[in-house]
Specification:
mainly alpha; 0% strand
Length: 256
């Protein structure tokens, strides 16, 4: 068996209405009316306090959202990048710095004291090997250009190509010649000998005096380099000019 108890609550306004009805029926104003007014005033004060608290919280939340939004939409250019004071060295940029230095000095000395040299190259032989590769690339490019410019006299074209490569990389050539005359160690001497033999064989084949890049072509190419260094070789023949074809000549005659 269950007993259900129903409790009815009244607001301050309900109490005021009931007290007003009691006053109208009895002609007396009971004390309950004053209590009703006091309760109403207290309730209003509590509601005002809660409203002020909520207003402050809403204002703080809005300000926080505005600050976060401003930080998210701030232009990228206003954000300062993270800078580092430690320079980054690579083999390519350090080698280029070395080449620039030797081209300025023109004294035949290897500037191994430049920043980044000791951290990007293992030793002197490693740095010299990189310079030798640059020289060989310069010489090969000059040979290909000379073969296209002077196809009628290939031997003289090779001599001219070597001189052109030397003039374009005079500082590098001075360093390599000085190291070849007095190598600091066997590793450097071996690298210089190997590159020189490759250069000589390539020059001999380009001049048409050898058919393969072998040991037999080495002395031939060495003699060509000697001629280029001494300057005792005549200038190559005049630049070859291709003759117009028969069809082109007939077209010119008809147009005239």
């Amino acid at each position: 068996m269950y007993v259900v108890l129903v409790v009815q609550t009244y607001s301050p306004k309900d109490w005021c209405d009931m007290d007003a009805r009691g006053t109208a029926s009895t002609g007396r104003r009971p004390v309950r009316v004053r209590q009703c007014a006091e309760a109403t005033q207290t309730r209003l004060s509590q509601i005002q306090d809660v409203a002020r608290g909520l207003s402050g919280r809403v204002t703080a939340a809005v300000e926080a959202l505005e600050t976060e939004a401003a930080s998210l939409i701030r232009p990228h250019k206003e954000m300062e990048p993270i800078m580092t004071t430690t320079p980054i060295y690579t083999r390519a940029n350090v080698l280029q710095a070395v080449i620039n230095e030797v081209e300025v000095r023109q004294d035949g000395h290897l500037p191994s004291d430049l920043p980044g040299v000791t951290t990007t190259f293992v030793d002197t032989a490693d740095l010299v090997g990189a310079l030798l590769l640059r020289w060989h690339t310069r010489l090969a490019t000059a040979l290909e250009r000379a073969m296209g410019e002077y196809p009628l006299d290939r031997e003289a074209a090779v001599v001219r190509a070597w001189r052109r490569a030397r003039d374009e990389s005079a500082g590098v050539r001075l360093v390599l010649d000085r190291l070849a005359a007095n190598p600091p160690n066997e590793a450097v001497a071996r690298a210089l000998r190997t590159t020189a033999r490759n250069d000589w064989a390539y020059m001999a084949v380009a001049a048409g005096l050898a058919s393969t890049l072998d040991a037999a072509a080495t002395p031939v190419g060495r003699s060509l380099e000697t001629k280029a260094r001494c300057g005792d070789h005549p200038e190559p023949a005049a630049e070859f000019v291709a003759q117009p074809s028969l069809l082109a000549r007939l077209r010119d005659v008809l147009a005239a």
